[in-house]
Amino acid sequence: MKKITGLVMAAVALLTLAACGGGNDKTADSSAEKTTDQLAAIKDAGVLKVATSADYAPFEFHTMVDGKDKVVGADIDLVNEIAKELGVKAEISDMSFNTVLASLKEGKSDIAISAISATAERKEQFDFTDNYYNPPQVMIINKKNQGTFTSLAALKNKNVGAQKGSIQEDIVKTQIKDAKLVSIEKVPNMVVEVNSGSLDAMVVEKTIAESYVQQNPELMIADIDLEPSEDEAFAIALPKGSDELQTELNKIIKKLSDEGKIDEYVQTNHELAEKSAE
């Protein structure tokens, strides 16, 4: 973060007040005003605009419903319930994972949910809700390499995939330091490459891995432990300064978590993903 002098901050504050309609002795905190208006705007519009990348079953993925392609998943169930609690409708936009947060920053979406980890780096640019799910991380390999890839050391100089812009990239960099990180936009593309042998392994969240292994019998989850981290837990990303919206969403998340609904969403959609693959 750049340090800003008091003089510059004062100038910025005056410009902000002017942009909001003039500085006629307005004493309300501009950021609080912004976040209150943000939540009110969502309710007034009757729509919660949601950015996601629907390639990460069981959290967000495509399936056929009544003959039509539809984005479903645990994250989608969660935002639909949030929208219901807010009295609005969720409008889901599917895009590449590395553009999900960009969409939020550009104001094209109100929230971003796509199995996103609230890392320290991301927190510098976005606000996040409380964590709603903390998944274990695993490695997918081809079964023919079961006897070869039995430790992290065995992956030295090997090609290990991770979704571009994801926490898994950091896991490869920090825990499999001697491997060659290969960043790929879509998880299904990584699966194809592990199948073909152009990737030796890929790092992904355990529930996601189980779905893909179920669909691809030649693949397996490697018997290699990866260290868990609180940074890997999933949270909903919000525009910076979203105090009011953040507070409201945290209340809803806590309620659903206490009721066991979020775990239920994960399990139900895990089963749906397996069924869809049959």
Explain the overall architecture:
The chain is α/β, with parallel strands linked by helices and 278 residues long. It has 2 domains: 6-133 and 233-277, D-Maltodextrin-Binding Protein, domain 2 (3-Layer(aba) Sandwich), CATH 3.40.190.10; 137-231, D-Maltodextrin-Binding Protein, domain 2 (3-Layer(aba) Sandwich), CATH 3.40.190.10. 42% of the residues lie in helices and 19% in strands. The protein has 10 helices and 12 strands. The strands form 4 sheets. Strands 9-8-10-7-11 form a 5-stranded mixed sheet, with helices on both faces. It has a 3-stranded parallel sheet with strand order 4-1-5. α6 links the parallel β8 (159-163) and β9 (180-184). α3 (74-86) packs across α10 and α8 runs parallel beside α10 (261-277). The protein starts with 5 loop residues before the first helix and ends with a helix.
* Succession of helices and strands: HHEEEHEHEHEEEHEHEHEEHH
CATH architecture of the largest domain: 3-Layer(aba) Sandwich
How is the CATH topology of the largest domain named?
D-Maltodextrin-Binding Protein, domain 2
Helix % is 40-55%
Q: Structural class of the secondary structure composition?
A: alpha/beta
Give the CATH class of the largest domain: Alpha Beta
Query: Using DSSP, what is the number of strands?
Result: 12
Query: How big a fraction of the residues is strand?
Result: 15-25%
What number is the mean pLDDT? 86
Number of helices, where a helix is a run of at least 4 consecutive DSSP H or I residues:
10
CATH superfamily of the largest domain: Periplasmic binding protein-like II
The major beta sheet can be summarized as: 5 strands, mixed
The order of strands across the largest sheet is 9-8-10-7-11
Rough shape?
A: globular
Write down the Rg: 21 Å
Provide the low-confidence segments as ranges: 1-36
User: How many domain modules?
Assistant: 2
End-to-end CA span: 49 Å
Protein name: Transporter substrate-binding domain-containing protein
Keywords: Signal
Pfam families: SBP_bac_3 (PF00497)
